[in-house]
């Protein structure tokens, strides 16, 4: 796998635990222990997920004495959203053209039925 930002973002988003962590961080900063609370996995496992999210640039970790809050970083999500949007627009255009073609065919068939 390449280490380009988009690939790292999608790889990080591929896991439901990491998506749940990001959802939690969307409400505000949290510590590793706070993030681990709802999961039935070890803190070490959560830490591994956090390292992957951090490597992807989706979170950052601060340092305030012993408290190391994690926070959501939205730039990689915005980049992924922009990438998806480009393809969504292409597909929307293709589906619109397909719909127009289907309507043209249906009009022709209706016209042939009345002859």
Account of the protein in words:
This protein is mostly helical and 115 residues long. It has two domains: 1-73, Winged helix-like DNA-binding domain superfamily/Winged helix DNA-binding domain (Arc Repressor Mutant, subunit A), CATH 1.10.10; 74-115. 66% of the residues lie in helices and 5% in strands. It is built from five helices and two strands, in the order ααααββα. It has helices spanning 5-13, 16-25, 32-36, 43-55, 75-113, and strands spanning 59-61, 70-72. The chain has a two-stranded antiparallel sheet. A hairpin with an 8-residue loop joins β1 and β2 (70-72). The mean pLDDT is 91. InterPro entries: ArsR-like_HTH, HTH_ArsR_DNA-bd_dom, WH-like_DNA-bd_sf, WH_DNA-bd_sf. Keywords: DNA-binding. It comes from Halosaccharopolyspora lacisalsi.
pLDDT averaged residue by residue? 91
- Percentage of β-strand residues: 5-15%
Rg = 23 Å
**Helix coverage percent of residues?**
55-70%
Structural class: mainly alpha
CATH superfamily of the largest domain: Winged helix-like DNA-binding domain superfamily/Winged helix DNA-binding domain
What is the 3D shape?
elongated
Provide the domain count.
Answer: 2
> What is the string of helix and strand elements?
HHHHEEH
Number of strands: 2
Unreliable segments of 5+ consecutive residues:
none
Q: How would a textbook summarize the main sheet?
A: 2 strands, antiparallel
Q: How are the strands of the biggest sheet laid out side by side? A: 1-2
CATH class of the largest domain: Mainly Alpha
User: What is the level-2 CATH architecture name of the largest domain?
Assistant: Orthogonal Bundle
Which fold name fills CATH's third level, the topology of the largest domain?
Arc Repressor Mutant, subunit A
- State the distance separating the first and last CA atoms: 60 Å
Number of helices: 5
């Amino acid at each position: 796998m390449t280490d380009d930002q988009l690939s790292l973002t999608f790889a990080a988003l591929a896991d439901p635990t990491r998506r749940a962590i990001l959802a939690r961080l969307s409400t505000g900063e949290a510590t590793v222990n706070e993030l681990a609370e709802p999961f039935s996995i070890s803190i070490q496992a959560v830490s591994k997920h956090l390292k992957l999210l951090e490597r992807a640039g989706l979170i950052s970790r601060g340092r305030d004495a012993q408290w190391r809050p994690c926070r959501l970083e939205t730039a990689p999500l915005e980049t992924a959203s922009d990438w998806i949007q480009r393809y969504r627009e292409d597909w929307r255009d293709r589906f619109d053209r397909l719909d127009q073609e289907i309507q043209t065919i249906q009009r022709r068939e209706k016209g042939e039925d009345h002859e």
